[in-house]
Design brief:
The chain has one helix and 17 strands. By secondary structure, it is mostly beta strands. Keywords: Signal.
């Protein structure tokens, strides 16, 4: 007895090799798009320069610049960071933005000898002609220089105690201040946290008073302008 036609067709279907299912909207011959080439960042150079010693307020003025490695200007304002050494660590001191030529002026008041470095993180801004690579300036050593001011009366009574005062910058508590006059040391004072100091002195004759901050491992010393006190 012959098998039904439906059974024959079903058996043939089971023996046929399976073909992968292709979505109706997919093109089997299409390949995934090639990944775009990575954009290479153009090299930059960062420079930092210190303008001599600190001013009367203890501030040191720094000048920085950011350029392409060939020396040409970026033509766009860019953020930069000033970093300084604190012991064995580097800490962020200040953030700034250059002008369109890549120049920036900075002012710092170091309380001790230290080293600074200007850093640029790089940029892929469309405002630049090319992606800019990060860069760091050569390190600049800056010496902290003490500045000290003395205030004293122009006249005093002979043998009468009076007050002298002043201030040392950079400010820090506990700095040693030596009060002297006419080649004689009167007393040693200590600064407060804001750099101020005060003391008492008694004179027997006209005296040219001055205070000085001795040189230390982390700070260059300095002396005040003399103050002449006449005795009546």
């Amino acid at each position: 007895m012959s098998r039904p036609l439906a059974a024959v067709v079903l058996g043939a279907a089971l023996l046929a090799p399976l073909q992968p299912v292709v979505a109706a909207h997919a093109d089997p011959s299409a390949r995934p798009p090639a990944s775009s080439a990575k954009t290479h960042a153009r090299a930059t150079q960062t420079v930092l320069t210190a303008y001599g010693d600190s001013d009367s307020a203890g501030a040191v003025h720094l000048s920085g610049s950011l350029r392409w490695a060939n020396g040409k200007v970026l033509g766009h304002r860019e953020p930069v960071e000033l970093w300084g050494r604190s012991g064995a660590r580097w800490v962020l001191v200040r953030q700034a933005v250059t002008d369109r030529r890549g120049d920036v002026e900075l002012s710092v008041t170091p309380s001790a000898h230290t080293t600074y470095e200007l850093r640029y993180a790089g940029s892929r801004s469309k405002s630049l002609t090319s992606a800019a690579a990060s860069s760091r300036s050569p390190r600049v050593e800056v010496r902290a220089l003490a500045h000290v001011r003395l205030d004293a009366p122009a006249r005093a009574q002979r043998g009468q105690t009076f007050v002298v005062k002043g201030r040392v910058t950079p400010a820090r508590a506990g700095r040693v201040v030596v009060l002297s006059g006419n080649g004689r040391k009167f007393t040693t004072l200590r600064t407060r946290a804001d750099g101020s100091f005060s003391g008492r002195v008694r004179l027997q004759m006209k005296t040219s008073l001055r205070v000085s901050v001795p040189k230390a491992a982390s700070l260059d010393g300095a002396a005040s302008t003399p103050r002449v006190v006449r005795v009546a």
